[in-house]
Amino acid sequence: MGIDLTPAMRQYLEIKNQHRDCILLCRMGDFYETFFEDAAIAARELNITLTTRNKNREDAVPLAGFPYHAASSYVGKLIAKGYKVAICEQMEDPKTAKGVVKREVVRIITPGLPVGAENILTADNVFLAAIDPGEKSASCGAAFLDLSTGEFYLAAALDLESLLAQLAGLNFRELLLREEVTGAEHINSLLPAAEFILANYLPAEYFSFTAAIDRLGDFSPVEEIKALDLARYPAAARAAGALIRYVQETQKTSLSHINRFRWYERDGYLILDDTAKRNLELFSSIIGGTPEGSLLHLLDETVTAMGKRMLRRWLNHPLRDAIRINERLQAVTDLKENHILRGNLRQILKGIYDLERLAARIAMQSASGRDLVALRDSLGQLPEIKSLLAGLSPPLIVYALSQIDVMEDTADLLAQAITAAPPPTIGEGATIKEGFDAELDLLLALVKDGFSGIAALEDRERRRTGISSLKVGFNNVFGYYIEISKARPFTLPPDYVRKQTLVNAERYINQELKEYEEKVLNARERIKEREQEVFFKLRADVAGQIPRIQGTAQSIALLDVLASLAEVAWKHNYCRPLVDNSLALEIEEGRHPVVERMPLAEGFVPNGLNMDGDNERFLVITGPNMAGKSTYIRQVALAVIMAQMGGFVPARGARIGVVDRIFTRLGAADNLSRGQSTFMVEMIEVASILKNATSKSLIILDEVGRGTGTFDGIAIAWAVAEYIHDARHLQSRTLFATHYHQLIELAITKRGVRNYNIAVRETGEGIIFLRKILPGGTNRSYGIHVARLAGLPEDAINRAREILENMEKRELDEAGQPAIARRKKIKKEGQLSIFDEV
User: Fold this and answer.
1) Is 357 helix (H, G, I), strand (E, B) or coil?
2) Which helix (H) or strand (E) element contains residue 305?
3) pLDDT (tens digit, 9 = 90+) per residue, 421-431?
4) Which of 51, 301, 477, 822 has its CA 20 to 30 A from that of 466?
5) Cβ-contact 316, 272 below 8 angstroms
6) What is the gyration radius of the CA atoms in the chain, in angstroms?
7) What is the pLDDT of residues 490-503, one digit of tens each?
8) What's the pLDDT at 44?
């Protein structure tokens, strides 16, 4: 490198060479430091000062750092931007080290593996995923893990397209692939809908089936591994093995909170692909992509982190089993009707911390004294919850209460062991209570006795010397000392030895003070060591209770979600739907849950729906732009989702025949990066619907065919409608909103088609939107009226009317072609228009 490096810098570069893909944070005293290229990155990304070591010299080394106690926030910012961070700690006491302090990387934090306070995504699941594309015609597989909660899933499918559809909606932040799967373009095609930040390519040996089975067996009983039947799904097993090895190598600690492997299946759940989730704005608004304006934001009245994650899972995977749905609905009903009880429950739940993530930190030996206090305080709330809900009878609530383990033994242990307000880091203050450990108590007594002995010594020395201003003090550099003012000369005892000279005083030490100093300082140092020993053993004992903590956390999350749905239902006047296995979709005075909360000048106008799955299963909905067609069809889909996740719906009454999938084709979007126009995207989405929908599906279509020419568009829209209605594998319940009023003629020949329109009132000034859906179709379009409302110039509006009139009269020009552009004769001077008649 051409730079004269210190031993510490040589040590740094040796460690950095082993972690080239990471930003290396090197602990140096009270700071984490970065050097060279890492320093430039850290300074830029964290907005901290970039300075140099050996400033003003040719061998100056770029340097940037921050205090170790603030590391979590800085590391969180780095991983949020896609960086991997290696934490390099001092492995010996600098005071006793000979030469350069020994340092080692103790953990690598990555975008997919945040555990502690660096997890700036708060309550959301953050997944690390591994994908094995399979071999030849064999199925492909995936595994994904939220290290902060211990949730570990496997998935398998016949092809990548099916696998990725199965994993739609998961928050992947990091991806593991085999080295031979290369190229950014391939990654984009592999996971077009994923939002992962970082891709890692691992050697093929990581994806070994035999090694995978052995690694899985280290975390779960042999019988449970056999039950997974991994021999049938080797790609999923290989992905799981690669993921576990990667986590073990980066975390370098116990992972005992990962104790259960589950198949991630969508059987039994209402399937929502990424298109449906985006179009229906389940998790973020289409405009801006923010949580505000989404259904989740409206429904989220949870008060615990576990509850927030579970609510998101419920919305991501509504149920398809009417029995399970009604179990949830009954629990929500009881909590909604017991308003005071629900309020008390939610107040207690607010006192419960994130038990899942506390368990993970305890298992991974990164939990602090404050984490154990959070666990202790959380456990203290559990008996009150069980007592409060003891009188409720819904089976789901009874089950949740039965699974809550109050863990009296662990709660009592923590109450006896941990002080009320421990410091953030062990060794920086009192963490272990007096009376818990005899050896620690003895050391504390020695320090107290030492302090009282020093006070007595100060009094004796004042009497012995006759110097009333004499005092005994202490500082970290010189230790204990006797300080005497220089104001006037004193005769000092012969055993006083000068230790330090100040401007106005002299500091001395004698043999008795030296003995006290050694006794107290040694005791203080031993207190830190003993407190660490006691704390680490205590944490290990609590780690043995991880399964109990995790089971209780799931029950608390369940109660929180049920209470949240009940709170929303009470607050917004939702009704309990009747959910069954019929093909009916009946909604009385339904509303759009998000739109109705907006400040609308005219207020929200409710609308009903009555589909029987037979004679009335395909609704053609016509009417002008801005009248409310899109809002109406979306609110029907949202009512189905809310009902099947176990919640009440925004309506006066509702009957929901269980839906297996919801398909949407809404709005206009292109994908230029893949060479796909708006119309191509539209046709791809429609093709997927016609291929995958069933008679139990709900299809929401808005303006199919509008991306191409008028006649092509009408032809495509008509053909798609006929196909859905007639195809034996389809015949799905469908809401088809369109401007092509010609489609109302479908109702003449198709038994299951019914026409509806959004009512408008025509006035001399234009039209007024009534927002009400009525039986029957409209035989005209109101596009020109809407254009006028939008502010098009009056000349353009008048010309549009002329052209429309010509088209409707089917007037022909001299060549026998439709005279779309014919203009009335206007006497004028100057250059002739190309549209003027000859």
Assistant:
1) helix
2) helix 305-316
3) 999 888 778 99
4) 477
5) yes
6) 36
7) 888 999 999 999 98
8) 94
